[in-house]
Amino acid sequence: MSLLELRGLTTVFQTERGGISAIEDVSFDLDAGEILGIVGESGSGKSVTALTIMGLLPQPPARIAAGSVKFTGEELTTASPSRMEKIRGAGISMVFQEPMTSLNPVFTIGEQIMETVRAHEGLSASAQRNRAIEMLDRVGIASATKRLNDYPHQLSGGQRQRVMIAMSLACRPKLLIADEPTTALDVTIQAQVLDLLMDLRDELGMAIIVITHNMGVIAEVADRVLVMYAGRIVEQSPVANLFDAPQHPYTKGLLACVPTLAQDRHRLIAIPGSLPEPALRPAGCCFAPRCTYCIEACRAAIPPLLAQPDDRAVACIRADELVAP
Amino acid sequence: MSSGAAQLELNADIPAAHQHPAWTTLKRLLHHRSFLFGLGLFGIVLLAAALAPWIAPVDPTKLAMRFKFRPPGSEFAFGTDNFGRSLWSRVIWGAQLSVIIGFSVVVLNAVFGTLIGALAGYFRTLDNGLMRINDAMMAFPAILLAIGITAVLGPSTLNAILALAIVYIPRTARIVRSSVIVLREMEYVQAAIAAGAGHWRILRRHILPNAMAPLIVQLSFLFAYAVLSEATLSFLGLGAVPPTPTWGNIMAEGRQYMIEAPWIITIPGVALMITVMGLNLLGDGLRDVLDPRLRIQQ
Amino acid sequence: MRTSSLAGLILRRIFGALPVLLIVSLITFGLMRLIPGDPSSVIGGLSATPAQLEQIRKDLGLDEPLTVQLLRWYGGLLQGNLGRSILMGQDVMSVTLQRLPVTIALSAYALIITLVLGLASGILAALRHNTWIDQLAMMVAMLGISIPNFFLGLLMIIFFAVQLGWLPTGGYIAFTDDPIGWLRTSTMPAISLALLQVGLLARITRSTMLEVLRQDYIRTARAKGLPQRLVVMKHALSNALIPITTVVGIIVSLLVSGSVVTETLFSIPGMGQLLTQAVLNRDYPMVQGGLFLVTAFLVLINIGVDVCYSLLDPRVRYE
Predict the structure, then answer these.
(1) Which of A298, B184, B191, C56 is the Cys-Cys partner for C40 at CB 3.0 to 4.6 Å?
(2) Which of A85-99, A255-269, B142-156, C56-70 has the highest mean pLDDT?
């Protein structure tokens, strides 16, 4: 049994123009100690997937229309709100993109870490304090004991992100979801934070889902990759295979967009067109309007995610033909 | 929730390529429930005020002792007071007075509040001095200052207008000043300064038009405050001199007869309520459409 | 917060308020001198001879040039001597000390009602956003800011005092004399005073809470698995109270303003009623001194609000 199992997860948002599915038929497994990267453009459904797992989407207007999320065998989609409160922070934790605004400005960072511990474990005040100091140390904040009494505005962006990570790991969750953890940070700090995540995975044996639109981060950190487009998974693969031989035309496009030093081009490559509006998705393959390999059959029906050798899967009816990189 | 919903980028109305922003604002206002309701309520009052000479032809000051204390009914729509005067006439003409006073206070605020606020916000040297005086004016409880000024000038409609204008201008100036200070630092203003544009030109063309939104919202609520405050002043005996009817002084006179003739205080009171509520709803609508960020301030 | 820096903050605010107080006293002085007619005829009465009026004027120091009068006024201020009320026959300070507590007690009663009802309904409306509770609360709040407080006062008198006879139509019993009596005479005035403020506070609390609940740190608090109650009462409220505190300062000023009419309506011997009478009767020293004291009191309250604000928001504290 995997740590996290998603089967056919579909989340729908109710709007004035009817229900719009933000994600459709999302399925994947995650084992302990694995780092899974979810990559895709803005609007592809990466964050919605994470928020659905965590149960953080407000129930109107959002609604889980179909599918299941099993965490250590327990079904989360039907769990009660108080059950979800116990799981969040202690079983599954989440780190968000904007460190500058994700911490409460009127409480010290020490208090914000300690209250997580207080909510999930019955430790004494001094034990809570020690745990907070321990976590700040672990994430590389110098003079942790003094920093406990600092307020968020006294810390830099990189430090705040570390504090967020410390806070999310304070109760030793089995799974950490990091939604664009480095996007708002300077490049040098990005590398440090990614290294930190990998070290923590090695030490604590937890699983991590890293959500990003940056292929470089994926290459750096992920064991396996999910590529999402327009709310669906279009490709799944171990990381090395993905970069060596991408199977879905979208993935190929994404990789081609990353400029390399070896290229001799005067213009950056982009995938022509843009993500369709959720309400106006085409009937067949969502990527068809932008795909260079598109044929009639592609527009007829949504291509299913089919398993491939080497633990891969792709949702493209022409995947076998288009083997060339 | 923030990230999930934001990613959906629902664009319900994609504006036509050349739609003028003022037109879209107007359309949004006309779809705003509070705004429409407020417009309806205030519109009734405005209409009554405008049509006073035709719908209330009876002289509101005319005494007719044989009709005194008639309750509202078929003869007198709103009844009569202790002097037999038609309450209908008095309330309608009172409406006209309230609207005129409110409007005048708003206009004076618009002109002088903007002037002072813009000067203080734009010219840093003037800011300190102007704001100190401003703060001193705002430190007085509003009614007390208004009473003091009316005492100096004497009770009359014009003086009530002046007193209320003086009391509220500092508040308006503050709001304009806040906008101007922020706008002054905007890059397109810096660019204009760098290009050598004169101060007045910058104020006129770049800063003030963009400071209009919070000002308009404030002026709408100000109309409401002015009507309420004027009623309070005339209730206390300051303001238009009887027998000129204002809702406030009708209620003051009717107070002694509140048991035998409760309609004398009730009807003007309800009229006041309708007017002020209409204006407040208008203000809410304007605020929601023009600048939702202002919600915290009001 | 360290006590030395708290004291420092208070001192700084007081120093900052001094120029404002200076201008306030100047304005009150100027205002009184501009009133046409002078107190000598009020005191002397209609039958006084010009010589007698002249004598009265001399006694009051009104014959001296304006600048001298101004300096006397400032001199007196510094000594705590604000002159003598013509109407009341006592010095302004002692009259104020008799009347101000009455107004303060009434305003405090109204403030408590405001805080409890305003905050509770605002928070509830925000938590039940777009439900009938929200709409109802906001409709009542809208009524609150639209009904003139003297109208509500009159309606309450007609209903509760005249029709039902539960409460007296007016008058005042001091709390120290008879707490129950004070409650009976102060309840209707306090409610009519509080109405506007409850509406205002409810609206602002609701929008502030809605704004705060949208923030990222609330999402973080939920993601940590904190119970909803804690997310709202600890994380959201602590941030919402910051702008709300500023509003409370404005509300206190509005309460003093409102008490002018309320005291007159319910015949309560407070500062508001006193000052109104003083203005109508040309009691210069009373208006000058009384207005100054009331305003100084409000400036002090605003300094208190400022200090609270600093205590609540660490970003301001550590600047």
Answers:
(1) C56
(2) A85-99
Asked if the Cβ–Cβ distance from B7 to A48 is below 8 Å, we say yes
Contact assessment for residue B261 and residue C147, using Cβ atoms and an 8 Å cutoff: no
The DSSP line for B52-107 is: HHHH--S-TT---GGGTTPPSSSSSTT-B-TT--BHHHHHHHHHHHHHHHHHHHHH
Handedness of CA C129, C135, C137, C139 (dihedral sign): positive
Q: Is the pLDDT of residue C220 over 90?
A: yes
Least CB–CB distance from B7: residue in A43, A58, A96:
A43
- To the nearest whole Å, the CA of A197 is away from the closest chain C CA by 18
pLDDT tens track for C226-235? 999 888 899 9
What's the residue count for chain C? 319
CA distances from B247 to B95, B153, B234 (A): 8, 21, 8
Neighboring chain A residues of B5 at a CB cutoff of 8 Å? 13, 61-62
Q: What is the mean pLDDT of residues B225-236?
A: 92
For C241, the closest chain B residue by CA position comes to: B296
Any CB–CB contact under 8 A between A47 and chain C? no
Contact across the interface for C216 and A94, Cβ inside 8 Å = no
The alpha carbon of residue A137 is apart from the nearest alpha carbon of chain C, in Å, by 20
CB neighbour list of residue B122: distance below 8 Å, 6 or more residues apart: B180, B184, B199, B203, B207
Strand-pair partners of A64: A11
Chain C, 245-284: which have a CB under 8 Å from a chain B CB? Answer: 253-254, 256-258, 260-261, 264, 272, 275-276, 279-280, 282
Cα distance between residue C49 and residue C55, in whole Å: 10
- Sheet arrangement for strand A224-229: A92-95, A175-179, A207-212, A35-39, A224-229, A232-238, A312-314, A306-308
Residues B270 and B277: their CA atoms lie apart, in Å, by 10
Chain B residues touching C276 at Cβ < 8 A:
147, 236
Q: Work out the average pLDDT over C53-74.
A: 74
Q: Where would I find the H helices in chain B?
A: 2-6, 21-30, 33-50, 52-55, 87-108, 114-122, 124-139, 142-153, 157-184, 187-194, 199-202, 208-235, 247-254, 263-290
Highest-pLDDT range among B82-91, C176-185, C225-234:
C225-234
Q: Which chain C residues contact residue A94 at CB under 8 A?
A: 223
Q: What DSSP letter does each residue of A162-216 carry, written as one string?
A: HHHHHHHHTT--SEEEEESTTTTS-HHHHHHHHHHHHHHHHHH--EEEEEES-HH
Cβ of residue B294 closer than 8 Å to a chain C Cβ: no
C83 phi/psi in degrees, rounded to 5: 95, -175
**Contact check, Cβ <8 Å, B11/A22:** no
What is the per-residue burial (b if ≥16 Cβ within 10 Å, else e) of A179-198? bbbbebbeeebbebbbebbe
Contact B82, B68 (CB under 8 A): yes
What is d(CA B3, CA C182) in angstroms, rounded to the nearest whole number? 55
Q: Per-residue pLDDT tens for C225-280?
A: 999 988 889 999 999 999 999 899 899 999 998 999 999 999 899 988 888 888 77
Q: Does C221 touch chain A (CB under 8 A)?
A: yes
Does the distance separating the beta carbons of C224 and A56 come in below 8 Å? no
More confident residue, C45 or C15: C15
Nearest of A205, A217, A184, A199 to residue A137 by alpha carbon: A199
Query: What DSSP designation does B297 have?
Result: T
Q: Which ipTM value was assigned to this complex? A: 0.87
Q: A20 and B8 in contact by Cβ < 8 A? A: yes
Q: In what order do the strands lie in the sheet with A74-75?
A: A18-30, A4-15, A62-71, A74-75
Q: What is the tens place of the pLDDT at every residue in C290-311? A: 888 888 888 888 888 888 888 8
